[in-house]
Amino acid sequence: MIRVLLVDDQELMRMGFRMVLGAQEDIDVVGEAADGLDAVQMADKLRPDVVLMDVRMPVLDGVEATKRIAAADTAKVLVMTTFDMDEYALSALRNGASGFLLKDTPPSDLVSALRAVASGDAVVSPSVTKRLLGRFLGDGGGELRDASMLDVLTEREREVLVLIAKGLSNTEIARKLFLSEATVKTHVGRILAKLELRDRVQAVVLAYETGLVRPGDA
């Protein structure tokens, strides 16, 4: 069973999520919270597999709640937002969320996303992350992070990271670099470990923030 904690300050929204998720045989909604502080406390107490987190809430917003939950490694976080160009969503990704979805996401996609996050995958497309970063970093502008942190990567790993950031799947990366898919998976795992990243989403964000890839790149 996938244990899920619902976090949203709107009771009707939580009710809707509970109805959708409660109909799934492999998903168990173990609790609900109306603000980020309650979410952090309940995540620590209940230890759910996934927290479905609203980002705009009173008391403590979803970004800070995501940061605390990710730091404590109590659960994976999937954030929900109303707008696909929401700076809160980008901040949540930077602070440990495994992805984000729009609140009008079809129920079947929501269920699939929760299952993916629970299994360790990320569920935000690099193209969406790219648009968010393009807005907040600017094309060729904005403040970048120190790229020296990437020095721990080999030349091949940097090459793979660039392709991850451009949205290529492992299969596509393998084809482009004339490698086996297993070898690509090994490279991806080493990249995440060396840079201390949780998943591909954070890898994409870091690649743009350090200037390894720019929002306007093809």
Automatic annotation (TrEMBL):
GO molecular function terms attached to this record: DNA binding
Gene3D superfamilies (UniProt xref): 3.40.50.2300
InterPro entries: CheY-like_superfamily (IPR011006), NreC/VraR/RcsB-like_REC (IPR058245), Sig_transdc_resp-reg_C-effctor (IPR016032), Sig_transdc_resp-reg_receiver (IPR001789), Tscrpt_reg_LuxR_C (IPR000792), WalR-like (IPR039420)
Domain (HTH luxR-type) ranges: 146-211
Domain Response regulatory: 3-118
Classification via PROSITE patterns: HTH_LUXR_1, HTH_LUXR_2, RESPONSE_REGULATORY
Any GO BP annotation: phosphorelay signal transduction system
Highest taxon of the lineage: Bacteria
Residue numbers carrying 4-aspartylphosphate: 54
Keyword S-adenosyl-L-methionine in annotation: no
CDD domains assigned to the protein according to its UniProt record, in alphabetical order: LuxR_C_like, REC_NarL-like
Keywords noted in UniProt: DNA-binding, Phosphoprotein, Transcription, Transcription regulation
PANTHER family documented for this protein: TRANSCRIPTIONAL REGULATORY PROTEIN NARL-RELATED, TWO-COMPONENT RESPONSE REGULATOR
Protein name: Response regulator transcription factor
Organism: Lentzea alba
